[in-house]
Amino acid sequence: MSQTAPSLLRSLATSFGGSPWARQGARLAPGPLAGRSYSSDEASETGSRQIAYTNRKLAAELAQTNEYLTHAKATALVNQTIELLIAALKRGEAVSLKPLGTLKVAYVGPRRRFDISARQHMLTPGYMKGNLTLGKDMKEHLKGLEPSQVPGS
């Protein structure tokens, strides 16, 4: 990868029409979640608390965009995020999964550690509340995964 991890995360967030720091709500385009809307206010507050608690700046809040967010785009964002995490593991960087909370990807200082908060019910119709969430299976798969266990490493 020619880009650094933080810039990749930032471009993931912005490639879907919004600033990674967007605070606006988003409406869902026609698809599995058609007709439902959600606000990112709750996610923003969670992010603010996390920033205050960790004293770190989030590099991206992947699901907070200004564009209509389809199920396919949301899934693509999650998949690309997972790929970045796997790549980080391959490079021997630390990846930690917290058991609960909205999905956040934080780029942490010179040690290049990715922190993720994971939650069950990934992309359950009608459930989205401003942030994507990781499914339980993926959370369990990534938790405690060593770089040597990553396929292709």
Detail the topology: elements first, then pairings.
Elements: H1 5-14, E1 26-27, E2 37-38, H2 41-54, H3 71-90, E3 95-98, E4 105-108, E5 113-117, H4 136-142
Parallel strand pairs: 3-5
Antiparallel strand pairs: 1-2, 4-5
Helix pairs in contact: 1-3
Question: Please, could you describe this protein's structure?
Answer:
- The chain is an alpha+beta fold and 153 residues long.
- It has one domain.
- Helices cover 33% and strands 11% of the residues.
- It contains four helices and five strands, in the order αββααβββα.
- It has helices at residues 5-14, 41-54, 71-90, 136-142, and strands spanning 26-27, 37-38, 95-98, 105-108, 113-117.
- The strands form two sheets. Strands 3-5-4 form a three-stranded mixed sheet, covered by helices on one side. Strands 1-2 form a two-stranded antiparallel ribbon.
- The two termini are 15 Å apart.
- The model is unreliable at 1-72, 95-142 and 144-153 (pLDDT under 50).
What tags apply to this protein structure?
disordered C terminus, globular, three-stranded mixed β-sheet, 33% helix, disordered N terminus, single chain, 153 residues, 4 helices, alpha+beta, two-stranded antiparallel ribbon
